Protein 1
Amino acid sequence: MPKLRHMPQLSDIARKAKVSVSTVSLALRNRPQIPAATRERVLAAAQALGYQPNPLVSAYQANVRSGRHQRYRGTIAWIDDTRPGDMKNQGTAYKQMLHGAQEQAGAQGFALDVLSVPDIDPNNDVGNKTRLERIMVARGMVGAIFPPLWWARMLTYDWSTVAVAAYGSNAGFVEKYAQTGLDYLRYTHVVTDVYQDTRLALAHLRRLGYRRIALITSQYQEIGASYRYTAARYAFSCEYPDVPLIPPWVAQQAVTAKAPAGFRDWLQAARPDAVLTTLGCSRAWLSECGLDAPRDIGLAHPFLSSGEEGWSGVRENYTLVGRTLLDAVIAQVLRGERGAPLNPKSMVITGNWEAGETTRVVS
């Protein structure tokens, strides 16, 4: 019979770190009365011994000590790596996603703590992971949610101690920045349904009478969406021959309000009666070329945001994305699952068409 492995206890950590058991307990919970040097020594000893606390038990004990309602079931980390000077976490979609996760956490008896790590070091993956793990162990985190990330390579780390759910579009940006080590999202993930939302917008434009529908997007967005915009546009013409396939305009560089070189020539060759665009500045480009929406051309967006007020297009439900991310983590926690599953789940959330002022019924 194989020998059972000894699971390290607080007393084992105390002996190795040469401190008391109570000091170990306080250090693992990141209590401020423990000096930083002592806390680091305790965390290093715990890691060396392979100590892995039961996060639900740790969270429950912390809850009892704090006097919170006993319905509390654990704490989940929301990893925010927004860089100084960046506004990623101030965008409407990001805020709605976080709000949805917070609402769902409260409804299910969990706490959602935003773990801000704005100083992720691109040249120190080991240090990044060790630091995050220590914080999550100290706070008794049972799970982690990775929303849209700046350093998407974090998803290549081994998060074997917590339940994980990620925002699916992170995978494209890992590829874009040549951050090797992630060919697919190995963790359960949730994403807006770019492909179906694009087809939904195309279907509504066709229903309005548009036939020559051109796609305007960027290489940056295409990679982030795993080329689903152009894939949906191609498939739509295969299914509806009366909507011929027009070569798309795919911006290769940073876009501005000024039409890029070659855009006017592309527009004259394409002769679209409607444009489906992922770039809000496209309206200014069309105006520069003498086209007004909806008078001269139809204009729609496959994922409306704060910059497209009044546009026709698809409104994605980011609040539901946040709720689904939270639900995905809770389901794993309750099943006792941690780390990367053998078969990651991919959950897609579709949006809804909104008729705006940039389209009209055409004959």
Protein 2
Amino acid sequence: MNGMTRATGRRLLASLLPACGRWRTWLAALVLLALTAVGLAVPYRHWRAEASFAAAEDAYRNARLVEARERLAAYLQSQPNSFAAHLLMARISRRARYYDEAAIHLDICEILPGPADEVTLERDLIQTQQGDLAREAALWSQARRRPNLAPDIFETLAQAYQKNYLLKRMRHCLDSWIALDKNARAHLERGWVREREQDHHGAVADYRQARELDAAAAREARLKAGQALLFLKKPVEALAELEPLADEKTADPKIGLALAQAWHRLGRTDDARILLDALVQEHPQEFAIVLERGRLELEQGDAARAETWLRRAVEQMPHEHSAVYALSQALQRQKKLAEQAKLQKRLKDLEADMDLMADLTARLQNHPADPALRCEIAKIFLRSGENREAYLWLKSALRLDPKHAASHLALAQYYERINLPAIAAGHRQQAGKGRPTP
């Protein structure tokens, strides 16, 4: 019996040994697999983080700032002490006009190992983008020495020149940018300058070039090209630019208005009227739409209906010459001569301000550092009720001369108008201490 038991035990052990061997093999394989996974996890996370950073850089270069911000935020979660990432986030924040956030990331850069001159340059760009041209010469020097950063510098300088309405400098900056980098944004901005230089054909060429360079810019470029072609009295070409945007005609009042204007000029007055009525319903405070609706009735010979629309336009923008002039025409056609005579006096005052504005802005191109010119431009905006524009011009005058008395007085008027008497009193006090305009 014992012999049989021992034999059975030996047979059982013999049968189990292969199974135990297989178990040990599987266990070893699982341990090896686990160790391999652990070993690969670190490089995988690193690869994924670096991919996020590369994607953020690409989005930044192509002005997809929301995407760039999201990608870089993901990278910073795993690499919170990356100088390059904080510097790039500062650049993204600046271009998105989050200046305080940009400054915070630059503060972090200053305590991390990295080139200090990159931080200094970015701080200069933040100030310049807000209209301060104190670092203008230094930035041009940087653009010449560091062509890889020149597009960023040119974009920033162009915005500063636009804020200061220095068209010649802005045009030179954009020409330099385009010579270096065929950028859609540069062409869009140069088109804006060309329109103000009365070169509308050149503007159309720039807008079309922007559309070809970047599909993401096509919508804006088509709209701007269509508007410029309408000014040139080329409604057929304008319609060709605008029709691909027609699905947005009621959602975007600018697109809808431009389409209605093209149809109006092509004799499709019923289509234009229907679209304008729909736009008024969707966007009742859009002055340009109300004005166009009145003009359409005026051109169709219904002066009484035109008057209703044009009065509404003048109520919205009482200092807008085009609206006052159109209302004057509607009154004249109805022989409402007494009221029309009052409007004629207002038109003369508005035309005098328009002529003065043209003279001041022309002089500004040659004397950009003259605070008196900027102050006079601001006063015209104050007279026309455009308080925000007036404020920006006065602030630019005081950047040039913090003690310019006339600018402080005009700012006092601005703050009184928006019911901030304490701040107004402060500017009146500053005016008393300042230098009078010669």
